[in-house]
Write a structure and sequence with these properties.
Elements: E1 7-11, E2 14-21, E3 24-28, E4 34-37, E5 43-46, H1 61-68, E6 72-74, H2 75-83, H3 88-100, E7 104-107, E8 110-113, H4 116-144, H5 153-163, H6 171-175, H7 182-192, H8 201-204, E9 225-226, E10 233-236, E11 245-252, E12 255-263, H9 274-282, E13 286-288, E14 291-293, H10 298-304, E15 312-322, E16 327-337, E17 340-343, H11 344-347, H12 354-369, E18 380-385, E19 388-393, H13 398-421, E20 427-429, H14 441-451, E21 456-458, H15 482-496, H16 503-539, E22 542-551, E23 554-559, E24 564-569, E25 579-588, E26 593-598
Helix pairs in contact: 1-2, 2-3, 5-7, 12-13
GO molecular function: 3'-5'-RNA exonuclease activity; RNA binding
Keywords: Coiled coil
InterPro entries: HTH_RNase_II, NA-bd_OB-fold, RNase_II/R, RNR_Ribonuclease, WH-like_DNA-bd_sf
Length: about 600
């Protein structure tokens, strides 16, 4: 490179003029910008003088390649062979031929002529690429017209993967100028008629959809208290497949004796076992309208579900409670129980459950006096049965209250025991609501629910203000909730005099299980809404709605028969709790939204 002469170089893939100044190069770029760089940052093409107004001449590329096949030469030699001279224009042309990479390829500062075999392979690859592009464009045309062909299936599988959250991008949607989102992919598949009822939400959240496939050990030999002479009732919704608690209460002097029997899952699932680690990974049973995905193998429920066999193993909470609902004493022990299964409706006619009813009312009154909140908004069960989606309102049977209060008593007793004995435990807590809402009806309950603080699971005790309890832990669903299982593991360790999990280990499990449980709840909510919208699209709807909130000219209605809320324009002022008839208009299935109008 001559001082004071502009040489031709390549900088970041583009031609530039370079002058040497103080051991560095000063570049003049296309457009006139100037920049100082190190010599090693550029590829030298020609010593100059040169300009950037270069026109590459016609050359003999193919003839040069035939002479050089398989050899490596300098850019200068290639320029002389292809263009017959070493000028700035020819040097640039040689570089561009090598950069194109067809017959020649850059290797360091030299250029290698490909072999004939390489060239043929490259041309074949280019032919296939062009064929793929042609097929892709033809497929896009068919997809735009809404008439996919069988050969388009691989492209559509990629769109389906995006709709299920299994990939982040889609060349098909990008080429069609559609958003590369799961919702847009879902809508596109619906328009094509390839999807109709598919529920993508659990997969999008990364949840497993098959039961665990792990061996289940036999029940260990150990002493159990024989309670088979006492009644015990597992009371659930119709169709429940995992009965993990049963109850019985009797009147005694000064109050009640309550038995809450819970499936003894920790007897088969000790901490850090493969079954325990799998349950932690899943967090909870996943209840979908199309079926349940358990957190434990079905064989665990078959062995331990209360009432599924003539006699069942249980962990029993035996509680003495005063007539005023005060917990006086608790005992916890492994047992054998003989359980009768009932639905909530059937339980209403069982005379043996009258003491449970009286006990439940006493404990409920005590909780309410302590500030507990009762929010009873309409609930429905959504089930997929073959081609039918069935939506069944859950009647507010009084027997639901009996069972709820018994479960709360067991949880209160377990938390009390854990604190007294210094046993690390997963406690359920809730701060006081932001405000207490005065008023009646569904509107007041709706507003109060909005003011609730989120319940939290912690490894340290704290009050549960929503329940009106100074301490509480969930212990009655170890078949269905992982942290209930952890509570049972801790209780069994205490009963047997073994080392329980440390507080740090419990805290670690609380954090991990709650993160997964949040995903499970989201999948259940979205799946329930998904199938409800499909039901509405198939059957339509016109029925009652209750106004629970006003937002400007809009009203939020609860639809008790559907378990939905709908925001509807109000043509006139309506009082809260007013009932009106609403008609379903349309659904946006990918967005999980439905539109209703007042009749």
């Amino acid at each position: 490179m001559l001082r004071g002469v502009a040489a031709l170089v390549v900088y970041k893939g583009k031609p530039a003029l370079a002058e040497e100044k103080g051991g560095r190069l000063e570049l003049t770029l296309e457009g006139g910008a100037r920049q100082r760089v190190r010599p090693k940052d550029v590829l030298f093409l020609h010593p100059g003088p040169a300009s950037l107004d270069l026109k590459v001449p016609e050359g003999e590329e193919e003839a040069a390649w035939e002479l050089l096949e398989g050899q490596t030469v300098s850019l200068r030699e290639l320029a002389e062979l292809v263009y017959g001279a070493y000028t700035p224009e020819a040097a640039l042309g040689a570089y561009l031929l090598a950069q194109k990479g067809e017959r020649f390829v850059l290797e360091g500062e030299g250029v290698r002529a490909r072999t004939r075999e390489e060239l043929l392979a490259l041309q074949e690859a280019e032919r296939k690429r062009a064929e793929r592009e042609r097929a892709f464009q033809e497929a896009l045309k068919r997809l735009k017209e809404g008439s996919p062909a069988p050969e388009d299936r691989p492209l559509l599988a990629e769109v389906e993967a995006l709709a299920r959250g299994e990939r982040k991008e889609s060349p098909v949607l990008r080429a069609l100028n559609l958003p590369e989102t799961p919702e847009a992919a879902h809508a596109f598949l619906l328009r094509l008629g390839l999807w109709q009822r598919e529920n993508p939400h659990p997969r999008r959240l990364g949840l497993p959809l098959q039961p665990p496939d792990l061996p289940v050990p036999p029940l260990p030999e150990e002493d159990r208290v024989d309670l088979t002479h006492l009644p015990a009732f597992a009371i659930d919704d119709e169709g429940s497949q995992d009965p993990d608690d049963a109850v019985f209460a009797e009147k005694v002097e000064g109050g009640f004796r309550l038995f809450v029997h819970v499936a003894d899952v920790a007897a088969l699932v000790p901490p850090k076992s493969p079954l325990d680690e799998e349950a932690l990974r899943r967090g909870a049973n996943l209840y979908l309208p199309e079926g349940t995905v358990p957190m434990l193998p079905p064989a665990v429920t078959e062995a331990l579900g209360l009432g599924l066999r003539e006699v069942s193993p249980a962990l029993t909470f035996e509680l003495w409670v005063s007539e005023e609902g005060e917990l006086l004493e608790e005992r916890v022990y492994p047992s054998w129980v003989r359980v009768t299964r009932l639905t909530y409706r059937e339980a209403l006619g069982v005379e043996a459950l009258r003491p449970l009813e009286a006990l439940a009312e006493a404990f409920r009154a005590k909780r309410l006096a302590a500030g507990a909140l009762e929010i009873a908004l309409p609930e429905v069960k959504v089930r997929v049965e073959g081609e039918e989606v069935r939506i069944t309102p859950l009647p507010p049977y009084p027997s639901r209250v009996w069972v709820r209060e018994a479960m709360l008593l067991a949880g209160y007793a377990a938390a009390h025991l854990a604190v007294r004995e210094g046993l690390p435990f997963p406690f359920a807590t809730q701060e006081a609501p932001a405000r207490r809402v005065e008023g009646e009806g569904l509107a007041a309950m709706w507003e109060q629910r909005k003011a609730l603080k989120r319940a939290q699971l912690k490894a340290v005790p704290a009050p549960h203000k929503g329940l009106g309890l100074p301490l509480y832990a969930q212990v009655t669903s170890p078949l269905r909730r992982y942290l209930d299982l952890v509570a049972h593991q801790q209780l069994r360790a205490w009963l047997k005099g073994e080392r329980p999990l440390s507080q740090a280990e419990v805290l670690e499990r609380v954090g991990a299980a709650e993160a997964v449980a949040d995903l499970v709840r989201e999948a259940e909510r979205k799946s329930k809404l998904h199938w409800t919208l499909l039901h509405l699209e198939a059957k339509g709807y016109e029925g009652p709605g209750v106004l629970v909130e006003r937002r400007g000219g809009q009203g939020v209605f609860l639809l008790p028969e559907l378990g939905l809320t709908a925001q509807v324009a109000l043509p006139k002022a309506l009082p809260l709790n007013a009932e009106a008839r609403l008609r379903f208009l349309e659904a946006d299935l990918p967005a999980l939204e439905a539109r209703f109008a007042l009749v």
